[in-house]
Amino acid sequence: MPTTARPLLAILSAAAVIAAAGLAATATAASADSVQLLQNPGFETGNLTGWNCSSGDKVVTSPVSTGSYALAGTTTGSDYAQCAQTVSVQPNSTYTLTGKVQGSYVYLGDSGTGTTDTSTWTSSTGWTGLSTTFTTGASTKSVTVWVHGWYAQGTFGADDLSLTGPSGSPTPTATPTTTPTPTPTPTPTPTPTPTPTVTVPADTGFRHPAYFMPLDNTPQSISDIVSNSGENELLFAFVLDSGNCTPAWDGSSTHTVASDTTVQADVTALRAAGGDVSVSFGGYNGTELGATCGSSSALAAAYQKVIDKYKLTRIDLDWEGDDLDANMAVRWGAIKTLEQNNPGLKVTLTIPMTTVGLPDTGKDEIRQAISAGARIDVVNIMDFDFGLTSGTMTQAAETVANAVNTQLQSLYGWDAATAWAHTSIQLMNGHTDQPSELFTQSTFSDLLAFAKSKHVAQFSYWDINRDRACDPNTVHNWADGACSSVAQNPYDFTKIITQYAG
């Protein structure tokens, strides 16, 4: 977009499926001191000793792969029934994790390796082998291995788990337990996700968030927005880097998050009106924190400052331009850490669209999130700026959204209803950056009906700063940042958005 308009949003992408299962060879031949490092690897104690598990996990006598016992995990819409164990390892060493699993979307993986965490998955009715290999970092002394299913995919089984490689300290670092712990660690605390046959989205309290720039483009007051539009769900944009991995509004060194009082007052006012806020990191202009913070831990710490400052339960990742599908190991590593440290945090990935739906870069972002073990709750599709080539704006936006639905089904193995329930449709009111596109109030109403018919997670738009007519006595840009460039009354578009309830 022109610099006078809002920076392009990159739509939230939901977590994508990783590489296929199958036994993988170790990177190097097992050394003479390669040993089994897991405690109770086949659950033959008859309980979960040595494992740190979800309340949905238990030991059963049938079905089993070998021996007398196996793990059975029962997933729900809010729990993927993870069972994990932390073990001591040696730095700069290669390890192989294997196991037998059965069920829909069963994952086996590792975290905290100090290098690249790995994982693999399969869906099968019978026992199937999974294997993954990783090498520890120069200072890594322990890693966590885990097995889990996927939200609301029923019961899965796991047996004959094994982690082999050079031994670390004599005993695992995990404290043995005889009963499952209620919260799976160290991977993200699960958040509600719909079953394949249920269309209720994961974040039912944030149905129609309108984007809002609290410091730019002549922002309205929160009281005016709430009183005259009825909107009390806002997505504040954008937090960027003002230098040295310092989160700041619009990347301005004069308005760092740490020193902010203006945006904080808006957040307080919005919550006092019964609403809530999410914060968007990125945008089309400026320097995104993920490009400069250098490491996942540093980036997670920068994001955490924003979460703590505004007591956030939702964040939006709007990685656009040269940040799209860039530095993914650092970025998704940071998100994984945030999800571990902030139970219940909802993560939206915003992705720009093409005429055929998700760009390849967007698909890759989703795949890499899954590979990293980071969760995407909602994929926010920027359903504009792809250029209208034929038909109406309504038809084009619906075509793009339908294409994304098919793509998400392929990436996740979901059915259509589940994919819609993890999709946010984001529009842009009035003139967009593409002269061929125009969203009128009628277009918004048509697409509201479409969103309702699909039961999408969210119906959103860019942005509330533009929800007013342009002053005819002032020269405006084509896609002006402070007005829509179409005939309208104040908040016409917002009043349509707020009608969405699922």
Please give a structural write-up:
The chain is of the alpha/beta class and 502 residues long. The protein is 21% helix and 26% strand. The strands form 3 sheets. Strands 1, 2, 3, 4, 5, 6, 7, 8 and 9 form a 9-stranded antiparallel sheet that branches. A hairpin with a 7-residue loop joins β6 (94-111) and β7. The radius of gyration is 24 Å and the shape is elongated. 54% of the residues are buried. Residues 1-32 and 170-202 have low confidence and may be disordered.
The overall pLDDT average reads: 86
Give the helix level as a range of percent.
10-25%
Give the CA-based shape.
elongated
Number of helices: 9
> Could you state the order of secondary-structure elements as H and E?
EEEEEEEEEEHEEHEHEHEHEHHEEEHEH
How many strand segments? 20
Biggest sheet layout: 9 strands, antiparallel
Summarize the structure.
By secondary structure, this protein is of the alpha/beta class.
Give the helix/strand layout.
Elements: E1 34-36, E2 52-53, E3 57-60, E4 70-74, E5 83-88, E6 94-111, E7 119-135, E8 142-148, E9 155-166, E10 210-212, H1 222-229, E11 233-241, E12 247-249, H2 262-272, E13 276-283, H3 296-310, E14 314-319, H4 328-341, E15 346-352, H5 360-372, E16 378-382, H6 393-412, H7 416-420, E17 423-428, E18 430-431, E19 438-439, H8 441-454, E20 458-462, H9 492-497
Parallel strand pairs: 10-11, 11-13, 13-14, 14-15, 15-16, 16-17, 17-20
Antiparallel strand pairs: 1-9, 2-5, 3-4, 4-9, 5-8, 6-7, 6-8, 6-9, 11-12, 18-19
Helix pairs in contact: 3-4, 4-5, 6-8
